[in-house]
Design brief:
The protein is mainly β. 0% of the residues lie in helices and 44% in strands.
Length: 147
């Protein structure tokens, strides 16, 4: 099968014409930081490091949607992200597993930096689908949070 996107959602299939020009966000969950000021006015982070997790929104408008039938909030998916993370090659390393289910390399190096697409175990928060009938535009999105 010819791959049309770098995105992988397991066990959801991503059929052709469902993920062209996809958009994905990756940001820390709300509990990742608990910022407070000391009595001297210095900003500090009181958050527990175990809360350093990501949330993501994946969205697209194309001709079809992924296999979202039966996908409900609370389901766990393995997500090979489209968005990349990076680190300084000489002193860093990937903070998450690297996506590796595609023929395309999930890592690349440019100058002093290594870029990689992470593989995250995420829970579905909100799945959405819509259709503009006459334009035949199928829009879909998934709000996800790392387990």
């Amino acid at each position: 099968m010819i791959e049309t996107t770098l995105l992988r959602l397991d066990p959801i299939a991503v059929p052709p014409y469902s993920a062209r020009n996809i958009t994905q966000t990756l940001e820390p969950i709300d509990g990742a930081a608990q910022l407070a000021r000391t009595v001297n006015g210095t900003l500090i982070d009181l958050a527990d490091g175990t809360y350093r997790k990501y949330r993501s929104n994946i969205s697209c408008t194309d001709q079809q949607s992924p296999a979202l039938s039966g996908i409900w909030p609370g389901m766990v998916l393995t997500v090979d992200c489209v968005v990349e993370l990076s680190y300084l090659t000489a002193t860093g390393s990937p903070e998450r597993d690297i996506a590796s289910t595609t023929d395309d390399s999930a890592t690349r190096t440019e100058g002093l930096f290594t870029f990689y697409r992470p593989r995250l175990t995420m829970m579905v928060v909100t799945p959405r689908q819509s259709l503009v009938e006459w334009d035949a535009d199928v829009a879909w999105s998934l709000d996800l949070e790392e387990v």
